[in-house]
Structures are given as C-alpha cells and as structure tokens.
Amino acid sequence: MSVKEKKVPPKLNKYMHARNPYRTPPSFKKLASVYPEFRPYCSYDVGGKVHLDFKDPKALRALTTCLLHQDFDLKVTIPDDRLVPTLPLRLNYLLWIEDLLMHAAHCETSDVIVGVDIGTGASCVYPLLTARKLGWNLVATETDNINFTAATTNVNNNDLQDNIIVKKVDDKTVLQGVLDDADIQKQMYLKKKEVNDNNNDDDDDDDDDDEVMSELNNTPSDTPCKHTDGDDNKSMKYMFDFTMCNPPFFSSEEETDSMKKSKKQRGEPISSPTGK
C-alpha cells in the first residue's frame, strides 16, 4: 500500500449483533416510496438504485426519523444541530446490554428491567428503542435545555411516559441525586411491585410493601432516599439494573480534530458529523 493510499473502512455489517435487524440494510427505495419527506434527499442511478448523500446532515436526520417510524412505530423529532443517532449502532449497544443481563442470570422475561441513560440527547433514542423493542424502562438524564425539551416531547408524543422518565440535571450531576430521587424511586418501585404481584400469589410481603410505600409517599421529591444493606431495614429502595451512556465525549472541537488525526489508519468518514 502506497503512502498516499487510504485504508478503506471495514464493512460494519459483519460486526453487527446477530439479532440486529439492520444486518440486512434497509431499502432506501421502499423508504422513499412511503415517506415523502425522505424523497428529496434521494438520487437514482441508471439502474434505478436509490442513493443517499451521507454527508448531508438533513439527509441523515430524514433517514433516521423515517426508519424509527417504519421499523419501531416511533414518532421522533430531532432539532437542527443536534446529534442524529445511527440506529444500527444504537441497537447493537442495547442488544449487548441484554446479552450481559441474560448471561448474568439477571434478566427474565417477566422481570421489570430499569436502566439509566446518562446524557440521553434530543432524540432520546436509547430509552425510546428500549421501551418499544425490549419492553424495559429507563431514567434518562440530560443537562442541555434544548435536548431536555426535545427528549421530553419525543417521549410524550409516543405515549411512553410510563416507561421513560426524563430528568433534567446540572452539568455536575452524573448519578447522585438521580437514582435517589423520591419520585423516580416511587415509580420504579410501583412497576416492580405490579409485576411481582401478578407473578406471585403469596401475600406475605404485603406489610413490607406498605411500609416502603408509606416512606416513599412521605419523602419529598428533592430529598434523597435512604439505601441500606441490612435485610431488617425496610428503607431499601429499588435497585437499578444497569447504567449506560453514549461515548465518546469531547470538550472542544479542537479535541475532536486531534482524535481524528491520531487515527491514521482510518479512512474518511462516510457520513457527516452531527451533534452539539
């Protein structure tokens, strides 16, 4: 390989999770026939094949929102200058988490699974996909006002408020003050209790449930809930199953450019960078 010759990036399909539906690429032609808002970004070759300009952020936004609706019945709006999620990679991440929970003997079909998405972004894509595809529940944190408003709107527009809690936090908050939030704890506890009650006819724990609920109801939302390891203390609250975030994060455009230059073996990106 000559000095000037660039290494071609590997095809991502072979790295996709076995259960990822995008191992088979979507049909742009079908998408264009169903979604008028997608058509302006399509071009056609002499053989009638549809092509998309992945360097155009508007084309990426149209592709993502149309696929979310077509494949997951999700109505999502992504504001300009906000991150446009790549669905195959997002699904890979969620399916890997599902595998980890299964391998840890932690995930059963009857379980209520609750995770935390740190920095959910405007699209709120991980919680939406998780709720719709896997039936899990997520607490989504966000520091940016525009992202928070857009994420909340996307959750409400899909009627997934019972599965997703979007929490506005300051830029110094990661988990503290989120997991212990009394309102969040109450909602998660009630979900777990509902499923347990449906799967178990044993009423021996009713008194314990009443005691925990009484404490949750009497705890102000801005007061952290107590957590203890002792079985004799009824203040033990809901334990979350996993946390996740969407790396990488850069503190500046200069840092992003530096990272690009350090990866000399990579080819040019095939899609336009988006995000805030």
Commentary on this structure:
This protein is 37% helix and 9% strand. Helix 6 (182-199) runs antiparallel to helix 7. Residues 223-236 have low confidence and may be disordered. 26% of the residues are buried. Strand 4 (137-142), helix 5 (145-157) and strand 5 form a beta-alpha-beta unit. It has eight helices and six strands. The protein has a single domain, classed as Rossmann fold. The radius of gyration is 22 Å and the shape is globular. The two termini are 37 Å apart. The longest helix is centred in the C-terminal third of the chain and has 18 residues, at 182-199. The protein is α/β, with parallel strands linked by helices. The strands form two sheets. It has a four-stranded parallel β-sheet, with helices on one face.
The number of domains: 1
Uncertain residue ranges: 223-236
Portion in helices: 25-40%
Reading off the top of the CATH hierarchy, the class is best stated as Alpha Beta
Structural class: alpha/beta
CATH architecture classification name: 3-Layer(aba) Sandwich
Distance separating the two termini: 37 Å
GO biological process, one term: rRNA base methylation
EC number: 2.1.1.346
Keywords: Methyltransferase, S-adenosyl-L-methionine, Transferase
Binding site for S-adenosyl-L-methionine: 90, 119, 142
Topology:
Layout: H1 28-34, E1 42-44, E2 50-52, H2 57-72, H3 87-103, E3 114-118, H4 125-134, E4 137-142, H5 145-157, E5 164-168, H6 182-199, H7 206-217, E6 242-245, H8 253-262
Parallel strand pairs: 3-4, 3-6, 4-5
Antiparallel strand pairs: 1-2
